[in-house]
Design brief:
This protein is of the alpha+beta class.
C-alpha cells in the first residue's frame, strides 16, 4: 500500500533503521510472497529482514508472534503493527528493552471511541479514562511462549501482563492513523505529501 513516496511498510522500515534497529522480523500471511518479493533482504533500508509465514487468519496477532519466536530470540522485542501510519520515534523503544509489556497509547480515534487501557503514572490500568493501543510496543517473548494455544489475540497478552502488574505504557501525542479503512488511508496519504 503506497502512502506518499513510500509503501506503508517502507515508512516503518525507514523509521526502524533511523531508530537504530538492524534486524526486523515481518509476519506475512495474505499475499505474503508479494511482500517478500517487494522488500527482499532489507538492504534497501540498511536492515536485515527475516520472514515468518502463516496461513491467513490462522493464528491471530498473538499466535502469529508466537510462531515467529524462533526468529525473535529471547530478549524483549519491539512490535510494530504494519497497518498504522505514525511519526512515533522508534528509537524510544530501546529505552524499554527490559519490558515485560510496554504499550504506546494514543487518543481514541472515532472508530474506537471506548479505548483499550487506562494509563496512570506510566502503568497500564484497566479503568477509565481509556486510551487506544497504538500497535506499537515492547514485549518479553516469554509472554507468548507460555500460552498453550496456537491462536490468540495480542490483547490477551497485554491483559495478562496488566493483571500481573507488569504492563507499562506511554502516550504518543503525535501523528497516528489506523489505515484499516479507506478514509484513513486517504488521510495518511494526504499527510505523507506534506512531509
Amino acid at each position: 500500500i503506497e502512502v506518499g513516496a513510500r509503501s506503508l511498510i517502507g515508512h516503518h522500515l525507514h523509521a526502524l533503521a533511523a531508530g537504530g534497529f538492524e534486524d526486523v522480523v515481518i509476519n506475512v500471511a495474505y499475499r505474503g510472497e508479494q511482500i517478500v518479493a517487494a522488500l527482499g533482504d532489507g538492504s534497501a533500508w540498511g536492515l536485515r529482514l527475516h520472514y515468518s509465514r502463516e496461513t491467513p487468519g490462522e493464528l491471530d496477532t498473538g499466535g502469529g508472534i508466537k510462531r515467529a519466536l524462533p526468529l525473535l530470540g529471547e530478549a524483549p522485542f519491539a512490535l510494530i503493527s504494519a497497518d498504522v501510519f505514525t511519526d512515533y520515534d522508534y528509537a524510544r523503544l530501546h529505552e524499554r528493552r527490559h519490558a515485560d509489556a510496554h504499550c504506546v497509547l494514543v487518543e481514541n480515534p472515532e472508530h474506537h471511541a471506548q479505548g483499550d487501557f487506562g494509563l496512570v503514572d506510566g502503568r497500564l490500568v484497566d479503568h477509565e479514562p481509556r486510551l487506544t493501543y497504538a500497535g506499537i510496543g515492547v514485549f518479553d517473548p516469554a509472554r507468548f511462549a507460555v500460552r498453550d494455544v496456537q491462536r490468540f489475540a495480542m490483547a490477551d497478552v497485554i491483559r495478562d501482563a496488566l493483571q500481573a502488574g507488569r504492563a507499562s505504557g506511554e502516550q504518543h501525542a503525535g501523528r497516528w492513523i489506523d489505515v484499516g479503512r479507506p478514509s484513513a488511508l486517504e488521510q495518511a496519504r494526504r499527510l505523507a505529501t506534506i512531509d
